[in-house]
Write a structure and sequence with these properties.
Number of helices of chain A: 15
CATH architecture of one domain in chain A: 3-Layer(aba) Sandwich
Oligomer: homodimer
Radius of gyration of chain A: 21 Å
Helix content of chain A: 40-55%
Order of helices and strands of chain A: EEHEHEHEHEHEHEHEHEHEHHEHHEHH
């Protein structure tokens, strides 16, 4: 790594690393709809690798070459990323898409893409001298911070809505984090985390606020690109809640584009549930800003946000890539869980299976051609939300232990 | 790969690959306690690599070099194995063991070590021309077979006790397997699966019966060895139910020992729950055979067997390695879940956390020295059994969204 600076994704103001922690001072106070963050900062590295790193994508040295840290030793010791790009022949055949891949990010240590962000955030927290990192989250981001912090010996304080999913809550508690179930919704938890970080001097990992969350998630894009190089995918489908994972994937590709290692950024296609489709609606209607969706609801808990906090940057990178957005029903999301699992062997939580549901819509709407190189990012394991998966499968009845009973069933 | 034969682990009779599918005919009918399998076959390759394969352990070519298949193309397309060997500094410090590693097999596609066995079994099933593979299992083995079969387009028929854990049941259904919940226990399911395979001409993946389960699981041993080469671990702790994972890990090391790539097999230490410790008891008492434990019980569902089916071979390889066995209480297993998670970032199900609980006992009993090179195999993710993990953590109360409430809690 050489040096880097932050640059505001709205007004392009550059900031020295030591002058700012979260967002652009000039943009932060601009009027914004709902809880959309203004002045999101992006990391701009002075130098990027101009050859593919020798190490394979599963090796820390591969990612470190693109990250704003001096070396792999600066990363917490938990192995994150290096997840497989699965060429699932059954799924390809079922969809008639011979160049389709599934990026299986369920293989991360806590079971979701969020580990990528937490890895870099905790690395920077340690570099900056913080002993505590805090985050507000409905589940996966908090769990990821808990896992990475456990490995690094850093204290994690997690602000979660009291109704967070059971599996995620138990998992973050197991990692030894201080969990604060808040009598309120995600927005309440988010604001309280922000205030508490200022009050108590903690480092804030909140998504769409801490610039290293996007920078960490960009490793998903880097790995996809490295796995397919020298080819470049035509389109990548990404489930969108706050829009940070999509922005991260886009950043990976745009860094590679800047470095000359690829010649274009793939079309980024945002997938949102119909009940929480603020970004997709704004894209479809050609608007610059989103309209919040009061009482947003979906079976995909990680995607259920009223006002996507990273909406502005997310829409910018989608448009710049020639991409688009698609909305999917809860029924399509639930159906996609067993469909993805039974055709690829990848078991996804609702928010992650949404990518496959979105692919159906994208094909219907002509946003993706069947012959194109397409990647669907699967962001979290189905074991995070077994009750949702249970709704999508038929439960077979118990049989007597006899061959006759077996014969009758098969 | 060159050729290979099967060899009976009891009477050393060799068999041509085409002459046998499951166990040694000469030994199969010998008297055995409970359901212990007699005449378990081992794969004996004509040639083994004499140099470490160029590909890293995460690449299919690495494993294929040691497996009884012609090339990586013969494997189902689901990426299995290549899981990280985690050097967890916090855990090392807490235990005073500077050369301790955690082999994190929760990162396999269905979340457990069993994927390794299923990968090879389905590869061989396809080679032999079977379109259906069946298995009896309390959970992880069936789930693994379902996942791998889904990716390969092979039919999976799963015989599971009707009271199998919810998460595992939903997961295998999601993969599209034909699930037959049996009104009976694991033994009933096992016998029924055996009879059904004969009746209907299906390939049988049952553990301790199909020789490729051990051969597939040996990849865990190969990867541990490759990650530490040229050093060799002094001891490896493995949770033991039927004893097939341990036998598999041992096979990996003994293949490497035969090939000259390492100079000894590490001491293998079996960890069983106190309520299902047939192998550990037989080892401790110096007996050749186990005594079944009627009504065996433990919070670690995958380890709860009355008569470990692979007991004979498992005890043989442990003794040959200079290893031993330790029994752990259910309380120690449950406590080990948050301890492992909070000190390493690896979240394990009870059966998998048992390895860490066993390490405590092994240290106490002087079976392992703190300065030795020790690996603990973590066989399945904690997300497989969230209710168990929930029993091991304290649930924090809900707080009001105010800084005062936060201050009072932290």
């Amino acid at each position: 790594m050489a040096g880097f600076r932050f640059r505001c994704t709205e007004c392009a103001t550059p900031y020295d690393e030591n002058d700012v922690r979260l967002v652009c001072a000039a943009c932060a106070d601009k009027q914004e709809p709902g809880g959309v963050t203004r002045g999101v900062l992006e990391v701009e590295l002075d130098e990027l690798p101009t050859n593919w790193p020798q190490a394979p994508p599963s090796h820390p040295d591969f990612l470190t070459a693109f990250l704003p840290i001096p070396s792999a030793e600066h990363l917490p010791p938990l192995p994150v990323g290096g997840t497989p790009l699965v060429a699932a022949p059954q799924l390809r055949q079922a969809l008639g898409m011979p160049r389709l891949w599934v990026k299986d990010d369920t293989r991360n240590p806590s079971g979701s893409t969020k580990d990528r962000a937490s890895l870099l955030v905790v690395a920077k927290a340690r570099e900056y001298g913080y002993d505590t990192v805090a985050a507000a989250s409905t589940g996966n981001a908090a769990t990821a911070l808990a896992a990475v912090s456990a490995s690094a010996g850093t204290r994690a304080i997690l602000f979660v809505p009291a109704n967070a999913p059971e599996a995620k809550l138990v998992q973050m508690l197991s990692y030894g984090a201080t969990v604060l179930p808040i009598d309120g919704n995600y927005d309440d938890a988010f604001e309280l985390c922000l205030a508490a970080c200022e009050e108590f001097g903690w480092y804030n990992r909140n998504t769409a606020l801490n610039p290293f969350t996007i920078e960490g998630k960009k490793t998903a894009g880097l790995e996809i690109a490295a796995s397919l190089a020298p080819e470049v995918p035509d389109a990548v489908l990404v489930p969108v809640g706050d829009g940070v994972i999509l922005a991260g994937v886009a950043k990976g590709f745009s860094d590679l584009d800047r470095s000359g290692l690829i010649d274009r950024v793939p079309r980024l296609i945002a997938v949102q549930p119909e009940g929480a489709a603020a970004i997709v609606t704004a894209l479809t209607e050609g608007r610059e800003t989103i309209r919040p969706i009061p009482g947003a609801q979906s079976v995909a808990d990680s995607l259920t946000v009223e006002a996507p906090r990273n909406a502005l940057q997310c829409m910018n990178v989608i448009r710049a890539s020639g991409g688009s957005g698609v909305a999917v029903s809860d029924e399509a999301i639930l159906t996609a869980i067993p469909r993805l699992a039974s055709l690829s062997g990848v078991f996804a939580e609702p928010s992650a299976a949404a990518g496959l549901a979105g692919l159906d819509v994208a094909l219907e709407e002509g946003l993706v051609e069947r012959g194109e190189r397409v990647v669907v990012l699967v962001t979290g394991t189905g074991l995070k939300d077994v009750p949702a998966a249970a709704r999508a499968v038929e439960r077979p009845g118990v049989i007597a232990p006899t061959l006759e009973a077996v014969a009758a069933r098969v």
